[in-house]
Amino acid sequence: MPRFTLRQLEYLVAVGDTGGIARASERLNVSSPSISAAIAQLEAEFAIPLFVRQHAQGLSPTQGGRRVLDQAKRVLKEADAMIDIAADVSGTARGPLAVGCLVTFAQLVLPRMRRGFEAAYPDVRIDQTELNQAEIFNALRRADIDLALTYDLDIPTDLQFIGLVRLRPFAVLSDAHDYAARDEVRPEDLAPLPMALLDLPISTDYFLSLFDACKTRPRIAERTRDMAVMRSLVGNGFGYSIANVRPHSDLSPDGRRLACVPIAEPVRALRMGLLTTQGAEKSRTVQAVIGFARDQVASGAFDAIGGEPLR
User: Fold this and answer.
1) 164 class by beta-carbon count within 10 Å (0-12 exposed, 13-18 middle, 19+ buried)
2) What whole-number distance in Å separates Cα of residue 103 and Cα of residue 100?
3) Phi and psi at residue 14, in whole multiples of 5°?
4) Residues of the chain above pLDDT 90, percent
5) Contact 141/277 with Cβ under 8 angstroms?
6) Average predicted confidence (pLDDT) for the chain
7) How far apart are CA 266 and CA 246, in angstroms?
8) Crossing angle of helices 6-18/21-28, nearest 10°?
């Protein structure tokens, strides 16, 4: 019988995905020496080197290491399937659950939702990851995550989206801006002004599409991939921005006051919901997450970020 454990395979996959012992340690919240020891034990068991160190690039799998990594992912997926079978038989949700969340709103939604879910289902252990939209698609297809909380932006046909709430777009403005006191603002009013664009894959195309109806393009003055940086740029007068999720505070991270003004319709609102692979909803644990998320919507948990329940 092989002398290795599922835990060692989990450490192996984490190193392969992150490209380094330290990053795998952060991802798994496990000490670096423990992960190093697990890799060394697996290399001794298989009698082949699994990784080589690339200067300034961390660890890269060897040719044999790549094959072992692929098989390790399959073994871990099958192990999770065994837990699902046990959950179905027992009628309870249990085992590990890897959850992804769109980076733009993860800090506002996921920790609170996770805390409530883990309190309701103490036998489920959640591992969360913050990703952009393109990364979420890839992570689901690679089975790195079981489901994700995200928007209905360019959803591929091989994935399944379950809508929860509708979120209208709004302009993020400095509180001193001339438009800050308006009830709403039109895209053509914003177009000539400097824009601090939240520049993320797929999300960027959506923000720019809001100007299609007025047949103009925004004047992009600043670009950032970080929501907090975007809010500070706006607060300090470098331009307006656009978002769909309302923060709980009207202050930028550096203390500048902001205003959120709805963009006049017709513009496309986004739906926030759960994204899975086809058939994933058959898992007892995924079913539990879907039911819990819907209960959260009904209880008003998404009201503070501007979420309108989908009927």
Assistant:
1) buried
2) 9
3) -65, -40
4) 58
5) yes
6) 89
7) 20
8) 120
- Which residues make Cβ contacts (< 8 Å) with residue 216, sequence separation at least 6? 187, 188, 191
Assign 3-state DSSP to the chain and report helix, strand, coil percentages, each to 5: 40, 25, 35
Distance CA 137, CA 275 (A): 9
- How many CB atoms neighbour CB 106 within 10 A? 19
- Enter the pTM of the model: 0.70
> Do the strands 219-224 and 194-198 form a parallel or antiparallel pair, or are they unpaired?
parallel
Rg of the chain over CA atoms, in angstroms?
Answer: 22
pLDDT tens column, 129-146: 999 999 999 989 888 889
Q: Is 12 left (phi over 0), alpha (psi -120 to 50) or beta?
A: alpha
Closest alpha carbon to 60 in 12, 16, 25, 8: 16
**Looking at the predicted structure, is the pLDDT value of residue 298 above 80?**
yes
Measured between alpha carbons, how far is 195 from 210 in angstroms, rounded to an integer?
13
Query: Please, which pLDDT band fits residue 100 given cuts at 50, 70 and 90?
Result: very high
What the block records as the tokens of 89 is: 């038989």
In this structure, the strands spanning 95-102 and 147-151 are parallel
Q: How far apart are CA 94 and CA 87, in angstroms?
A: 6
Which tokens hold the place of 5? Answer: 């454990």
